[in-house]
Amino acid sequence: MKISYVFIVLAVTAMMIACLAGSASATVMAIDSVITSGDTLESITVGSTTYSVLTSPTSITDNSSTLDVIHKDATAPADLAAAIGDFDLGNGSLNASYEAQFGGALADDSLIFLFNNDSSPRPGDSATVYAIDENGNQLGADSGTINFRDFWDAEAETTMPELVGSTSYHRTTGGSSTTGLSRVLVGVAFTLTDLGLDGLGATGIEISTSTVDTQAVGLAAVPEPSSVVLALGGFLALGVIAACRKRR
User: Fold this and answer.
1) Coil, helix or strand for 188?
2) ∠ CA 215-166-76, rounded to 5°
């Protein structure tokens, strides 16, 4: 009978985990909303799930020929890493290609998010994405594409969710600054699997683009079964065991 009790506990736990795992996203998705503290990003919401455990890149390598950045304050970020490598949404970039490393192995289901600043919530920007190893080498010949045009419909008059509304920025290109650049913020979340990429050996991503204006890039932890749900499952299993004992 003891074996039966153990089997019941394992079965209930497995069913809960399978149910939760089945709710994971299978495609690139638009980010629906964000929570910020001032200009600092604190969480993102995709669909019905809010991700509050965010990880910024450990390093950013600028592959663009000219540093082109935007900034709310008068002082421009010193480099691309300072512009997009943390979660300060007061800074961003324009048309930058780069490599973002995350300091460890990426799983196929590691959730990556990318914020894009644009003149409207109907961007036509696109980027090619590669999985890279710790030395910045592309893994295989495969690449994925993120096309922001896929997330809105002019005919239906839909737009991407505005994560931050119209904001005025300074723009600094090659050391020369201008003012009055108005941008809104939109974003997407995806996994390597969503883009058809093999994540074996991947520690980062390479973004190749001439149109996407990255404001922030990072990782959001894939939700694990909560301790509350597991505790409820445990109580349910104990209830089943107690019922079985009463029948004996």
Assistant:
1) strand
2) 45
Q: Which two tokens stand for residue 163?
A: 């994560």
How far apart are the C-alpha atoms of 244 and 10, rounded to whole Å? Answer: 16
Using alpha carbons only, give the angle 192, 196, 201 rounded to the nearest 5 degrees. 50
The pTM assigned to this predicted structure is 0.81
Pick from 208, 213, 163, 177: which is nearest to 77 by CA? 177
Gap between the Cα atoms of 179 and 212, Å rounded: 20
What was the pLDDT predicted at 141?
87
CA distance 64 to 208: 9
User: Looking at the chain, how many residues does it have?
Assistant: 248
Residue 47's nearest CA partner among 63, 61, 27 is 27
CA distances from 67 to 58, 102, 175, 214, 231 (A): 20, 22, 8, 13, 51
* Per-residue model confidence as pLDDT tens digits over 142-200: 999 999 999 999 999 999 999 999 999 999 998 899 999 999 999 999 999 999 998 89
